[in-house]
Amino acid sequence: MTKKFPFLILLPAVLLLGTGCPAPQSEHQxxxxxxxxxxxxxxxxxxxxxxxEHPDVTIQVTAGGSGNGIAALIDGTTQIxxxxxxxKDAEKESLKTKRNLEAVETPVALDALAVYVNKENPxxxxxxxxxxxxxxxxxxxxxxxxxxxxxxxLYGRENSSGTYDYFKEHVLGGKDFPAKYQALxxxxxxxxxxxxxxxxxxxxxxxxxxxxxxxxxxxDAQETAIEPxxxxxxxxxxxxxxxxxxxxxxxxxxxxxxxxxxxxGPEGQKVVSEKGFYPLKGD
Amino acid sequence: xxxxxxxSQLLRVSDMTNRHLRRRQFLDRAAExxxxxxxxxxxxxxxxxxxxxxxxALPLLWGNVDGxxxxxxxxxxxxxxxxxxxxxxxxIPLLLGTLKITFIAMLFGTPLALGxxxxxxxxxxxxxxxxxxxxxxxxxxxPSVVMGxxxxxxxxxxxxxxxxxxxxxxxxxxxxxxxxAIIPIIYTVSEDALTAVPNHYRxxxxxxxxxxxQTAVRxxxxxxxxxxxxxxxLGFGRAIGETMIVLMASGNAAIMSLSPxxxxxxxxxxxxxxxxxxxxxxxxxxxxxFLGTLLFVVTSVLNWIGDRYNRRMRKKLFGxx
Lengths: 283, 321
Prior knowledge:
The structure holds two protein chains of two kinds.
Chain A: H1 5-20, E1 29-35, H2 40-53, E2 57-62, H3 66-75, E3 80-83, H4 89-99, E4 103-117, E5 125-127, H5 128-136, E6 153-157, H6 162-170, E7 182-184, H7 187-196, E8 200-205, E9 213-214, E10 216-218, H8 230-234, E11 241-249, H9 254-264, H10 266-274
Parallel strand pairs in A: 1-2, 1-3, 5-10, 6-7, 6-8
Antiparallel strand pairs in A: 3-11, 4-8, 4-9, 4-11
Helix pairs in contact in A: 3-4
Chain B: H1 2-57, E1 80-81, E2 88-89, H2 92-123, H3 126-139, H4 144-163, H5 171-196, H6 199-207, H7 212-223, H8 225-241, H9 244-249, H10 267-274, H11 283-318
Antiparallel strand pairs in B: 1-2
Helix pairs in contact in B: 1-11, 2-5, 2-8, 3-5, 4-5, 5-8, 6-7, 8-11, 10-11
C-alpha cells in the first residue's frame, strides 16, 4: 500500500499538467471529416500530413460508411463527407430542404475495385460477365471458369457499404447477391478471408490488396483482360474503377477550402498513391 | 432536590436521544427516497428505450412502408434481400440463424460452465476456488469485439483446416466464440445457486453414507436446479442478443439451413451491419427497428423468467424470496 501511495499523488498532478499545457490560441481550427470506410485510412493520412504542416488546424477523421457520412453532412455534424459513391438525388434534396445548402462534389482520388482470389488459385483473368455470374450464384464451381474444381465461396461487404453499392450496380447490373453471399465487416476482413480460403473470391479497394492475388478483368470475352494498374485506371480501360469524392454543404470556405486545395495539390495527391489509390492526374 | 435533578437529567438525555433518533429517521427516509428515485430512473430509461425503439417500428403495424409491413417479415419466399429493387424482408432465415448459433453456444457453453461451477462449489479446495472463480468471471470482461476478432482470424482457420469445412465463417465458429461469452454468466449464476444450498443438505447426505460426488450430483445439484435454470436462461438471453461476435465470425449469409457449418446471419448482426446506410423512416429502417424490438422483447422476457426461477429457488431453500 505504501508503495502505491506516491502514484496516487502523482496521478492528479499528471492530470493537472495535461490541462496546464498552453491552451490553443484563438485561430485554432477544427475540421471534421466523416464517411466512407474505404477512404478512412486515406483521410487519416491526409490529416496527419496536413496537421504537421499546419499546427493550428485539428482534423478529426471518422469512418462509418459513405451513407453515414452523407447523413452527417445533411445533419451538419460533419464539415466534409468522404464518399466512395456519388450522392443520391434524394440525399441532395434533403440537404437542400434541411439546411438550404447545395451539396458540392469534388473528386479527390481514383480507386480501382479489385477482384481478389487466393494466391494458390490458378485463375488469372475473368470477364465482367463471369464475375457477375459468379456473384449472382449462377456459376458456382471454379472449373466453369477454367480453374481447379471446387465450390466458389463468395465474400464481400455489408449492404451499408459504398463499395457494395458500386459492385452491385456496375458488376451485377443491380441484381441481388445470392443468399450464400457472405458479408464481412470491412474490406480488411474480406482480404483476410480470401487470403486464408483457397476457394474464396472477394472484392474491394485496390489499396487493400496484400497477401492475395488481384485478377485482370476483361470487358467481354473478345477483349483482353486488363490488370488493375494506375495506367489502366487513368486511361479508363480497367472496367471497374471509380472516383472518390469529398462533399461539402455549400462551396468549401476558409480552413476547409485550404485543406481541399492541399489535398488536390501535389502533396495531397502523393499521399493518395502512398495509400494505394490513384491520384486524379497520374504521377 | 436530588430526585428532581435526576429527572431533569433523564429528560435531557431522552431529549438528546430523541433528537438523535429523529435525525437518523430523517436520514434513513431521505436515503430511501434517493434510492427509490435512482431505481425509478433506471427503470424509466429502460422503458423509454423500449418505447422509442418500438415506436420506430410501429408504422409497420398499420400499413405498408415501401413494401414493408408486419406481414412481409414472414411472407415467403424466405429471403432477406432488403436493398433489392424488389425488397424481401423475410426474417425467418435471420431467426433461424440466431437460434442455430445460440443453440450451438449453449451446447458447448453450458456443460463447461456447469461443470466448473460444480467443481468450484463442491470439490475445489478454497485456495483453488479463489483463483478459478475470478479467472472465469474475468472472461466476462473481455470485450466481445476481441472474441469476435479471435474467431475471425484464429478460430476460423483452425476449424477449417481441422475439419475441412467449406465455409470458413459459419455457425459453429460463431457459436464456439459465443460460448466463451456466455460461460461466465452461466458459471457465476449457477455457482451462486450451488453455494447457496444450505450445508445441512450436504451433511445429511454424507451422514447417510453418500459419497462426495453422489452428494454433489444427486443432492446439491437438484436442490440448486431453479438457480441453474435461471443461469441457463440468462446465458441464452445473452447469446441471442450478442452482436459483435456473430457479426465478425458467422459469415452473415442469410441461408435457410440447419447445417452448423453453413454461413449464418443473425438478427442482431443484421441490425448492426445495415442500420448505418438505411433511408431514415423507410421500409428497411422500420423493419430493422422491428428486429430490434423483437430482440428487446425476447431478451427481456428471458431475463424475467430467469429472475422468477432464481426467486423460486430462494423460496424453496430458505422459505423466503
